[in-house]
Amino acid sequence: xxxxxPSYIFDTDMLxxxxxxxxxxxxxxxxxxxVKANPFLVGFMDAFVERYEVCSPGEFHICVKNKIxxxxxxxxxxxxxxxxxxxxxxxxxxHYTAESKRQFDLVQQCAADLGKTxxxxxxxxxxxxxxxxxxxxxxxxxxxEQVLPLQIAGLQYFTxxxxxxxxxxxxxxxxxxxxxxRLSEEEGFAAKVLEFGPG
Length: 199
Hints:
This protein is α/β, with parallel strands linked by helices. The protein contains six helices and seven strands.
């Protein structure tokens, strides 16, 4: 009776228990929380998540408001304009993703203009409109020495949501691990990071 409607109540104790279990069972993998999944919970997860993924200016400002350390933020998503990338870099964000060669060039140019050294993940498409094909990813990796201070840290592979088949997820993981292996053997590229989102 004292709360307005609609109201949302979160059991953060249960959330902490589930995060602890997940982190413990996925070790040595680390957790990256997509802010769009539930921006109300940003901050509660600090002890358990390695990164917060933000895909819009609004999500980024939620992280700023909650005083999330900028080194924990990954600026991701298909919506990246120059002003957004530049502002994020000015605030101290060092982790980015590229959905396309245009986004890659945008992040590289902003880093060069601001004199920043940043890391970027190349998003590999899973067959939809998001991310880059293997050919584009390979092309960018081949010219990785020419784009400093931008450093290609690895790959990002998000394959959609609402999947319940462990075999499907296993197949997707095998595919992206195979691509990393080929890039290592054929291009001499040693990825530091694989951000895998099975949904």
